Amino acid sequence: MPDVAKLRRMVAFLREEIPAEDVSKNPVVNHPHNTARMVPERLPAARIKELSQLQPEKAVVATLAEWAGIAGAIALCTYFWHPILYVLAVMFIGARQHALLILGHDASHFRTLKTRWQNDLFANIFMMWPTFASVEGFRKFHGTHHQYTNLPDDGNRHIWYTHDAAGELAPDWQFPKTRLGLALVLLRRAAFLTGLFWIVRGLVGSTLIPSPGWMRAARFSFYAVTIAALTYFSLWSAFLLYWIVPFCTWHLAAQYMRLICEHSAVESDEEEYSITRSTIPTWLERIFILPCNVGYHLEHHWYPSVPFYRLPELHQALMERQGFREHAVIRHSVLTSLSECVRRQSSPGTQLAQESAR
């Protein structure tokens, strides 16, 4: 039997209005997703305001580039069909779906277009609705994740189920793990069922989250037109092969690898630096796992007003600060970050030496 009381609480939470106030006690630049925690490295307000200036054409071009990549992969795989090429296409398209959601994440911070309704509509049509989400829905959870990172009101506890009812880390989110344990978590999440759950959750949850009536009508029209087009042109099998399969496999694997890199087993001698890890990916990891500068995560948490295309500049500005250089957890590949989430097993010789020293 389902937990009716828990279900009612979740529905009530989804229907609440999305908080819009700045909870920071002394913000450098006002933003509704500023953290309630302390920011140790406070850059000059003029510098942050300059980095926060929107250049909408960059966001639009980045979005179109992801869709061009998806179209190219589908065309290439269809024309030169081969099972190995299909596997590569699934990985590439799943990575592009992940990139679209990362771009939608920027829109949830109001960082895509300058006018809010245009920002949200553009993000929904080209980033979020195709990936079974909504910018309003993501903002609902992600705003509180920024405001209360690693605290009881952190939105990640709702959307990623990182903690149990007692506030303890759920088994999947307890790190470090063995290499096998980490691999099993990623394989289980990439084994289709989690992806199907995400699709249903996104489609149903988005109907409950407050949004303007015209946006609800636009959302209904988007899915109605999509269904009609897939039916009229007999594209349902292609939709399954080139959209659902990538979404439920590699896209989910990339999502979980990213989140593990960001918030698991982060160790720093200063508490406010241990809220998250920044991972600067290799070029191959940038294509398949960490697109759109999303790896600059500590920087983003401290200054959510800075759009994704200015995060490398923000990183360089912070690297000029001694405190950031000494205490920030910055790694230069996804593999390095994931390795810090793996339990180190002592060799028999090391174990013997440890026993002798006692």
Automatic annotation (TrEMBL):
GO molecular function, one term: sphingolipid delta-4 desaturase activity
Highest classification ranks of the organism: Bacteria, Pseudomonadati, Pseudomonadota, Alphaproteobacteria, Hyphomicrobiales
Fatty acid desaturase domain location: 84-323
GO terms of biological process kind: ceramide biosynthetic process
Descriptive protein name: Fatty acid desaturase domain-containing protein
GO cellular component, one term: membrane
A Pfam cross-reference name: FA_desaturase
TM helices/strands, residue ranges: 59-81, 180-200, 220-245
Record keywords: Membrane, Transmembrane, Transmembrane helix
